[in-house]
Design brief:
Length: 329
């Protein structure tokens, strides 16, 4: 607990952990600015990393930046800090997403601090999982993690889970008929095996996972329509554990809330020995996004579809150097 502004070395480490967050196509659409005299770290959206076709409203961008903000809060708590966060602090600057005051004197959040070790272990796994249910107590813990951030996590029943898989396939079919979407996806996904040296963003071929034999799991195939020598096929779990993350409303602040909740769920899952992958594919089409929602639930807007389970950890995706993300003033 300190009222003194953290030094640049500490803040650099916090930003490195923040940048380990997931984002749409691993675009890493964030930048940071540290006002060292007053101990304030600002989070901005990077307008050069938007996806006009897949994410025209920047919903996915906000979710990714929210995930980075949660990582920042976790890393700060693990370092003994108690940051104070304001979302969207200046409506005149929509790319100014959050302001984090690092000089708080309250005790650090112990629950967040315990998630710190999971930041670097968390990777999206697009590999087959075991056909094994997640215990009820573990599901409750994941739902509590989302609730702690002001969001909702639901595990749909069998009929609804099957309908979600059908909506994923519907979205895949729509994408196959939309060359502009395919071109945008190809920009951020790399089919080379092994991936090209010096890659700092996007999804490398090693992280695609094998092609599915059948279509049983909501795993996006980033290589659709592109040759990828050396990539194999594999059967996936027949009854995937699917969770829906959602919010009551659907504006920029809600997307930031959803991103923080998503990452808190993923870090909690990693701590519990689970692996996960996420997909927004059926949510990128407004005409089918509404159908992903469980009509029997109180969830207003689904923000992410999460696949959870037991299986191999996915490979790490590349990350941009902190020097490219952080300005010191």
């Amino acid at each position: 607990m300190t009222a003194e502004p953290p030094d640049v070395k500490t803040v650099t480490a916090l930003v490195a952990d923040a940048a380990a967050a997931p984002s749409l196509h691993n675009a890493q659409p964030w930048t940071f600015r540290y006002l060292q005299d007053i101990g304030v770290l600002r989070l901005y959206a990077d307008p050069e990393r938007t996806m006009p076709r897949a994410d025209p409203d920047n919903r996915g961008l906000h979710i990714g930046c929210g995930a980075a903000l949660l990582n920042l809060r976790v890393a700060a708590a693990a370092a003994g800090l108690a940051p104070l966060v304001r979302l969207l602090p200046d409506s005149a600057y929509p790319d100014f997403l959050a302001e984090v005051h690092l000089c708080g004197t309250a005790p650090p959040d112990g629950m967040l601090a315990r998630l710190g070790a999971a930041i670097r272990r968390r990777h999206s796994s697009r590999l087959p999982f075991r056909d094994e249910e997640i215990p009820g107590a573990m599901r409750e813990g994941l739902s509590e993690a989302a609730g702690d951030e002001g969001a909702q996590l639901l595990f749909p029943g069998a009929w609804h889970a099957q309908s979600i898989l059908e909506l994923v396939r519907d979205a895949e079919g729509r994408e196959a008929l939309a060359p502009d979407v395919r071109e945008e996806t190809a920009r951020w996904t790399h089919t080379e095996l092994p991936h090209a040296a010096g890659l700092a963003d996007g999804i490398p071929g090693e992280a695609f996972g094998p092609r599915q034999r059948g279509t049983s799991a909501p795993v996006r195939d980033f290589a659709v329509g592109r040759a990828m020598p050396g990539r194999g096929w594999a059967p996936f779990e027949k009854n995937p554990n699917i969770a829906l993350l959602g919010t009551a409303r659907d504006g920029p602040v809600d997307w930031l809330v959803a991103g923080q909740a998503l990452e808190r769920v993923l870090l909690r899952a990693t701590t519990d020995g689970l692996v996960a992958s996420v997909t927004s594919q059926p949510l990128e089409w407004p005409e089918i996004r509404w159908a992903v929602r469980d009509p029997l639930s109180s969830m207003g807007h689904v923000q992410m579809v999460i696949r959870l389970g037991y299986g191999p950890e996915g490979p790490a995706s590349p990350r941009r150097p902190v020097a490219d993300l952080l300005d010191i003033l």
